[in-house]
Amino acid sequence: MLVDSYNRNIDYLRISVTERCNFRCQYCMPEKPFSWTPRENLLSFEELFEFVKIAIDNGIKKIRITGGEPLLREDIDIFINMIYKYKNDIDLAMTTNGSLLKNFAEKFKKAGLKRINISLDSLNRETAWHIAQRDVLSDVLSGIYEAIRVGLIVKLNTVPVKNVNDNEIIELLEFGIKNDITIRFIEYMENSFASRSLVGLTGLEILNKIGEKYKFIDEGVELGSPSHYYKLENNYRFGIIEPHRDDFCSHCNRIRLTAEGDLIPCLYFDESKSIKSSIRNGNILEAKNILYEIIRDKPEKNRWSGDGESSNRAFYETGG
Ligand code: SAM
Ligand code: SF4
Q1: Pocket around ligand 1: residues whose beta carbon is below 6 Å from it?
Q2: Is this structure's pTM higher than 0.85?
Q3: What's the topology of domain 12-318?
Q4: Sequential pLDDT tens for the chain (320 residues)
Q5: What are the residue boundaries of the structural domains of the chain, listed by start?
Q6: Which of 73, 130, 169, 183 is geometrically suited to a Cys-Cys bond with 156, CB 3.0 to 4.6 A?
Q7: Is 69 near ligand 2, meaning CB less than 6 Å away?
Q8: CA separation, residue 35 to residues 19, 83, 99, 271 (Å)
C-alpha cells in the first residue's frame, strides 16, 4: 500500500503517453510548443510497462492513460492490453479528446479498457472550433457514440469558460441525460500556457446555472474521485471538479507519470523525479524507491485555492 505523509492512500496512476495533440485548446495548448520532445527521449511502451508493474505490485489499483492526445501514440491498444494481461481487475481508463475514437473504441474495449472520459466543451460547432482551434465537433460526437456503442463506460469532461461556453451548461447537461452518461464540469485551472484572457466559472457559478432549470441534491464527494456529485430529481448524477476549493486535495489519491518518465506528485507544483534511467538500466529497486520518495514528498495542497495562483506546468505534458 502506498500512503503519503498526510495519510492519503495513493492508488491511482495517470500516465501521459504523449505531449502531442491534434487540438489547440485555449485553456491547455493554444499554440504548438516551440519543439516537441524528441522521440528517443520518450519511454517506450515496454519501458512504461516496467514501471506499471512496479506500481501495481506496490498498491496502484487504477491506471488512466492520457496525454496530450493518447490516440496519437501508435499501438496504444497494445499498451492497454499489456496492462490488462498483467492484472485484469485493474481499473483501466483513458482520457481523450474523442476526435479519433470512432475507429479505435472497439479495439480499446477488446484490449481491456473499461472506462473512457471524453472532453466535450460545446455542442455548438463554432464554439467547439473556437476552443480547440480546429473544426472538431462532429468527430468528437462520433467518437462518443461509438464508445457508448461498444460498451465502454463513458464520462464527459467540460471546462466552462466565461463568455465562451458558459451559456451551454444546461444543454451539455441535457446531452448527458439524453445519452445516459455522466458529465463533470471542471473548474478552469489557471496555467501559464493557456490563453491569457480566459476566466473560468467557479463550481458555485456552474451550480447556480444548473439550478435555474433543475433541482438537485448534494451527494458529496465520491471516494477515489476528484468529483463532487449532485443528483437531479430524475436520478441523473452530474459532477463538479473544484480544484480551487480549500479542501479539494484532502482526498487526493493520485500521482502522474509523463511520457519522458517524470513522476509527478501534484499537478500544480514543478517538482518531479525521473524514473527513466532506473528503468532503462533495469534497476527495478531504484525505480521503486523513487516511487516511494514521490509519495512521501507529495504536497498537502495545490495552490489554486490561493489568490489568483497560476501553475507553470503544461497540462498536455502532465495529462491533466
Ligand atoms: N487530450 C485529452 C483530452 O483533452 O481529454 C487528454 C489530455 S487533457 C490535458 C485531460 C483533461 O484536462 C481534459 O479533460 C481537459 O479538458 C482538461 N484540462 C486541460 N487543461 C485544463 C485547464 N487549464 N483547466 C481545467 N482542465 C483542463
Ligand atoms: Fe489537446 Fe486535451 Fe490539451 Fe485540448 S485539453 S489541447 S485536446 S491535450
Answers
A1: 21, 27-28, 66-67, 69, 95-97, 119, 157, 159, 186, 188-189, 191, 194, 315-316, 319-320
A2: yes
A3: TIM Barrel (3.20.20)
A4: 999 999 999 999 999 999 999 999 999 999 998 889 999 999 999 999 999 999 999 999 999 999 999 999 999 999 999 999 999 999 999 999 999 999 999 999 999 999 999 999 999 999 999 999 999 999 999 999 999 999 999 999 999 999 999 999 999 999 999 999 999 999 999 999 999 999 999 999 999 999 999 999 999 998 888 999 999 999 999 999 999 998 899 999 999 999 999 999 999 888 999 999 999 999 999 999 999 999 999 999 998 887 668 888 899 999 99
A5: 12-318
A6: 183
A7: yes
A8: 11, 30, 23, 22
Angstrom distance (rounded) from CA 47 to CA 283? 12
Reported for 79-82, long-range contacts at CB under 8 A and 24+ positions apart, including other chains, are 79/17, 79/45, 79/48, 79/49, 80/108, 80/111, 80/112, 80/113, 81/111, 81/112, 82/45, 82/49, 82/52
Q: Does the CB atom of residue 63 touch ligand 2 within 6 A?
A: no
Beta pairing partners, 305: none
Pairing of strands 254-257, 237-241: unpaired
Please choose, from the candidates 170, 173, 190, the residue with its C-alpha nearest in 3D space to the C-alpha of residue 182.
173
What cell numbers appear for 5 in the block? 505523509
d(CA 110, CA 8): 33
Q: What is the C-alpha R_g of the chain?
A: 19
